Amino acid sequence: MSRMEIPSKFVDKAKFVRVIFTDVENEYDTLLHSMTLTFDSVWRKRMLSKIDFSNEVRVLDLACGTGLVTFQLGRLAKKESVVVGLDLSPAMLSVARRKRASVQSDCSVEFVRAVGEFMPFRAGFFSSITVGLALRNFANKLAVFKDAWRVLAPSGWFLSVDFIRPENPIVWTVYRFHIFRILPAIGRLVSSYWNRTLIYLANSILLSTPPSEICAILKEVGFEQISVEKMSLGIVALIRAQK
């Protein structure tokens, strides 16, 4: 099993994650679809089904990467809506900005380089915040949730879909072999960078904060109507919370 030392402090982990997602940006979308057997699309669709697009929306997509969730939001939102993707990786954002020219969207879709712990937005602006397969990448989740609370409008929703460590021991045994053995081997076939990134993925899942603890932190911040929906044999969790 390939173990990796992942920093736990905010600044150190922010730098670490930025490096981990450098030099993999061009193949990211294709390999993510392949490695999840296209289930990543199902998980994102499930998360976005919780947002009411019948009216104009203002949505912030945290840790947006190459914009997979961001552009889906843009396609679903009405003309006067605002969609913003935020990420700390210049490499991933460069891909997102290139893709924007070829993605059809009726509303404004913008990208901002920043960290989720300190968002450069005014209080109460967004009606929803999404995080797609990336909540594990934040070192200080309490700070992220506090700032999410700040920039959300009253009754706004925070939504995250992410990999978790499944509770079923049989599922975990099979899944652990897959993420620690199979995926890094696939990564080596692509590049040393992808091998490194997939080893990080495996370790981040191993060390991921359980949904029950995520919910406790959200409640501490002041969120209500908190719920957890587990999918795909418990390897992914959709967490919702309302301001």
Explain the layout of strands and helices.
Layout: H1 10-20, H2 28-35, H3 39-48, E1 58-62, H4 68-76, E2 82-87, H5 90-100, E3 108-113, E4 126-132, H6 141-151, E5 152-163, H7 169-190, H8 192-206, H9 211-221, E6 224-231, E7 236-242
Overall structural domain count: 1
Count of helix runs = 9
Q: Can you tell me the residue ranges where pLDDT is under 50 for at least 5 consecutive residues?
A: none
Q: Residue-averaged pLDDT, rounded?
A: 93
Largest sheet: 7 strands, mixed
Radius of gyration: 17 Å
The end-to-end distance, rounded to whole angstroms, is: 41 Å
Could you estimate the helical fraction of the residues in percent? 40-55%
Do you know the CATH topology?
Rossmann fold
CATH superfamily: Vaccinia Virus protein VP39
Judging by the overall fold, what is the CATH architecture? 3-Layer(aba) Sandwich
Order of helices and strands: HHHEHEHEEHEHHHEE
Describe this entry's structure for a reader.
With 243 residues, the protein is α/β, with parallel strands linked by helices. It has one domain (10-165, 209-242): Vaccinia Virus protein VP39 (Rossmann fold). Helix content is 44%, strand content 21%. It has nine helices and seven strands; from the N terminus they run H-H-H-E-H-E-H-E-E-H-E-H-H-H-E-E. The protein has helices spanning 10-20, 28-35, 39-48, 68-76, 90-100, 141-151, 169-190, 192-206, 211-221, and strands at 58-62, 82-87, 108-113, 126-132, 152-163, 224-231, 236-242. A seven-stranded mixed beta sheet has the order 3-2-1-4-5-7-6, with helices on both faces. Helix 4 (68-76) links the parallel strand 1 and strand 2 (82-87). Helix 6 (141-151) packs across helix 9 and helix 7 packs antiparallel against helix 8 (192-206). The longest helix is centred in the last third of the chain and has 22 residues, at 169-190. The protein is globular and about 45 Å long.
